[in-house]
Amino acid sequence: MRLCPANLDELRHALATANGRRVPVTGWDLHALGALLEHHPEDMTATAQAGMSLADFQHTLAQAGQWLPLDPPFPKAMTLGALIAGNHSGPRRWGFGTARDWLIGISVVLPDGRLVKSGGKVVKNVAGFDLCKVFVGSHGTLGIIVEATFKVLPLPKAQRILQHICATLEEAGALLERVVGSRLHLDILDLHRLPGSPPTLVMGFGGPQEDVDEQCQALSHLGICQPGDMEYDGLFHKWPHRKCAVMPSALMDTLARLEGCAFVARAGNGVIYHTQGPPAPPATAPSALQQRLKDAFDPHHTLPSL
Amino acid sequence: MNLASTLCVPLAPRLDTSGWVDSLRAIVGAESVLADPKELLAYECDGYTLQRHPPTAVVLPRTTAEVAAVVELCARLNLPIIPRGAGTSLCGGVLAVEGGVMIALTRMNRVLALDVRNRRALVEAGCVNAWVTREAAPHGLCYAPDPSSQPACTIGGNIATNSGGPHTLKYGVTTNHVLGLELVLPDGSVQWLGVTPDGGEDVEGYDLRGALIGSEGMFGVVTRALLRLIPTPTHWRTFLGVFDTVDEASHAVSDIIAAGIVPAALEMMDRLIVSALEEAYHFGFPLDAGAVLIIELDGLPAGLAAQAGVIEALCRGRGAREVRVARDEAERAALWKCRKRAFGAIGRLSPNYVTQDGVVPRSKLPQIMQFIQETSRRHDLRIPNVFHAGDGNIHPLILYDEREPGQVQRALAAGHDILTRCIELGGSVTGEHGIGVEKMDYMALQFTESDLDAMRTLRRVFDPDQRCNPHKMFPGSKRCSDFAVRKQAHA
Fold it and tell me: Do B457 and A296 touch (CB under 8 A)?
């Protein structure tokens, strides 16, 4: 069944009931749990209910000159709960990591209806085991995230995105090595090839205006000066695609094996989103430890399986 | 008389060691097993000395296979295992509450591989934190988490407590910099969790590596770790802001954060600490200052110059009488050396001290500092402060003399008051030191029974018998004798 609770108590009750009756819960709509609960700009932290969209969260933060520096595609459609459950990120992953790196507190409804929290509202906190990490990237298989607290940052005073269109993947690879070996402070380091387009290296950075100007100059010495944007990311993610992750040094060899297919690669991180290509390796069975974790938190397998 | 010996009565008769110590010797060699009471004394506590209890035996393995064999033997004999690094932790996290087999990883201390292109280092768990950066530095890389104990503490210990340090304000704590690790589970099986040394960043399945980091050695024995390295900042500016009062300095911290500047580090030291440091290391600190801020910016040269002006103006706006800039790398290094040796200078002020590790929202710093001053007066104890102001992570050092009647109790009561206030202000009882045996009872103040249950559930996933580093973390865990913070405090 699919849950569409009007409030937190209703969610707890509905999930506990389904769990008690051994009815699988296949999905949930937390539309009604979408409020911003706290934002303390002077503490650089913010707490919201998990049903709030990332776009709305960013909009609220921006009014105080702050942001959560995560930029996955389609932020209007992505709830904070989904952001955490998928450990999502976007082009700025090179500079700012993924949801895992910004989450400092979480509240979750377990299958038996209990509300549990971990972490807190301060940026440094090692009291208790780190259940935040258990739920980040768990895809809703252990509990339903209902509230989250994030560290946030001041919005950069200035930002710039530059791109360089390459004739071949080899040229892109050579340029990428020069950029990685430089002392540039990049937030975005992407390489993409959309259908019918040449490989394009994208570099983005932000900070004080003086920093941005300095980096523009440094990149122009590498022959990179064409203005770019991040539209490729949303465009690409509308198509069915797969993901693979390799050592950053293995990126170009892996891309070469993808032959003609379209891709967006987090080139610094070695994470590739691609259309078709070699068949995905068969999904490996979860390890015994992974399965024990699932069974411990969701003993009746009420929630989706791992 | 040793205070701890009065507090700590062994609960159980000594574990019968007949036979199994020889079995340990057969695994790791006789020279790698300590079982003589005199030798075990060095392992009876960590930096938290109020409670002591020796393990029954200490093993010093050299390989993962040896660790696995020792753990497997302990599983068969149902013996507690206590993983230990350098023993620099500060809350009894490696106390052998009931004895048991302590597995000290200090001989597994190598940097195994440095992958410069992929910015990774593969190290053994007993590798000293500072050695990683020492090895990586010639390649323009460093390991970011920099706890003050970094010349001694081990990566395995850092993983156990999810260690921080001054520069984690900008760069994050241990969990943000450990990509993967090798774990010997309490049944003796060996697993790699997280990113493998030749694998990509995204790993399928649950983040078991993340779940393990900060678990205080209660999920198994970490034997190797894959660390993320970052480029060493090439340009920095380090300021010393001199204030008349802690209150002014606290407000300056809030103003810097509110101005949208995230320094690499933002540390505060009060008058007592500054004078002890000056006496010990002769840096040139002003002895009459109420508080000193160390503010470090790093980044690109142009932006640094612009931000430096803002920092200076904000400090002056809060009454700083002087804002000094470190002239060169040597002066900067000397400043950080002083800061990181602050705890070491406390011996000049007092025969004993206990440090706390509370956290408050950054904007509540002026309030908690005020409260600490009141607490100091109320309990008639000096409480110097040296801490990570930018993170709101305080380290009040409560000074006492165990030879003076009543002082231990007052020191414990003062710590209790401060930590309780941190929770009331929306914070936490520990930012980087951990819970250990010291702060078990506070867990019930900070978390609900359901929260704690979920943590116990997680623990049993890794350690169904709860045999690995037992009697820690959870309120009501069996403790050494009848020792309870609150009982002591109200005695």
Answer: yes
